[in-house]
Amino acid sequence: MTTLDFEKLGLKCGVEIHRQLNTKKLFCDCESTLKDEPIGKIVRNLRALAGETGVIDVSALEETKKEKMFEYKMYDHESCLVELDEEPPHNLREEALDIALLISLIFDAEIPKEVQVMRKTVVDGSNTGGFQRTAIVGIDGTLKTSFGSVGITNISIEEDSCQILGEKGHTKIFGLNRLGIPLVELGTTPDIKTPAQAKEVSEKIGMILKSTGMVKRGLGTIRQDVNVSIKAGARVEVKGAQDLKMIPTLVTLEASRQNTLVEIKDELNQIGMKELVPKMIEATEIFKKNDSRIVKGQEIFASKIKGFSGRFKAKLTMHRTLGNEIANYARVKAGVKGMIHSDEDLKKYGFVEEFKKLRELLKAKDSDLVFIVAAKKDVAKKTVDAVCDRINKLLTGVIEETRRALPNGDSEYMRPIPGAARMYPETDVPPIEITKKRLSELKNNLPEMLEDKVVRFQKELGLNSEIAGQIVASNYLTLFEKLLKLKIDARDIANILLNVIPELKKRDNVDVSKITNSNIEAVVLKLVNGEIIKDAVPIILKETISGNDVDSIIVSKNLSAISEKDATKIIKEIISKEKTHNLKTTVGLAMGKLRGRIENRKIFEIVNRELKK
134 phi and psi, to 5 degrees? Predict the structure, then answer.
């Protein structure tokens, strides 16, 4: 792919960040830990209806056409009748609202006098009621960056959707345990002009959200969307970027895709291409003797696209051809899996002779593209319609749409961009007044920004910039600050959190997620009180994952700290009993008795001293 000149292309980009808040669920008292096992299930079908405006949202209508069924797994402590949409929502959780208001204040956003919960139509199965509850808590905020200020269009609080667990045929399977977890959503204005700027904005917003100490961390707790357009293109929303590092690639590849689509549009208009009218013929007989699993036992239908031979090979991005793009569009629209076209390597499918016969049957020229669909007639018709529809859209260039982010930084078609028709008021939740007193109290408790915390840790605690940065970026920050109150050297705490615990995972394959903060705190307290030494820390922490408490581990493993005097006595007994004067042998025997109770260095010194007597 050629290097893109983003300024010349007129690249515009905005980002949307969705981050889970560390509270119970937004409209009920269910937990949000995602640790329960399923205890039952229900099955539902959803369809789009007109809202308050009398208009059916275009993206919701497209989901309805897929005719999917939805299965929902229920959980004992993490779902209830609210998630099942069998009971009205409870009052909006005030703790979560305070966090969203605090974030709005940090971004200097304008906060409404009243928060009105709305319903956002969603019928892809990710919400049991066919809608998601959301409320705007701030507008017109500002984020300062290295390239200038970026506007924050809105800050909202909303409920997270169900997590998808799998799919069986026409049934999607979801878990209700994630549904209803509070999210804060922030969207920016399209002031971002390069992929690098998009990453910086996302990083800064993420840093500010983490600075509150009130957001969840870990895989699945944050989702990032990017809105990308170029001057000759259109706004495209790429949803679901999990990895911050992939954002520059997402933006670059989407700009590349749009730029290539504009070039294709110009070429097609130059040759005077007209809109296609979908036509297909049945070709089952031609493939009857072919043993390929793609066509065996299937009905086969075929169609041609005049003058399109070779065009499906056009590279939209480094990972995606025009053929990939159109096939994915047809798959989403029609649910088809088996679609093969003449721009592919037909030898690998064993379809060379069959496609020759197809060309004769379709009266296709060498310049025409031929494709087949292995599916029932109704699905095949939907597929041919979708292929022709997507090719006809090439005549206008880039279409506004929502795309799914892929792990390699590319994206694929999901659905049309939703319109205003998807939003309508939530009548089961009363508006919430935002008082001056409430905002004043929140203003007096604005959190220290993480970047400022890094500087303070270096200045006040003597940590170097690397260690300070690692602590602030880790999941142990809150625990670290709590442990500082025990009057222990900050470097010792940092060593336990950043080196000792990760080393247990690396060296001994220990599931360190089972080492609780309370056990870490208990071990550090023993260290501060001189009851154990540093060498005992990894031994004790490793044992805690079995559920044993710190005190019993110290007793059972004989890890109580010992004085140099008592250690000397034990070593003298070893020398006397074993009648050995070999330094290495004696040190080994002493280690067996004293490891974890006194420093290894001290053991060596005592043995060396006693053997010289």
Answer: -150, 155
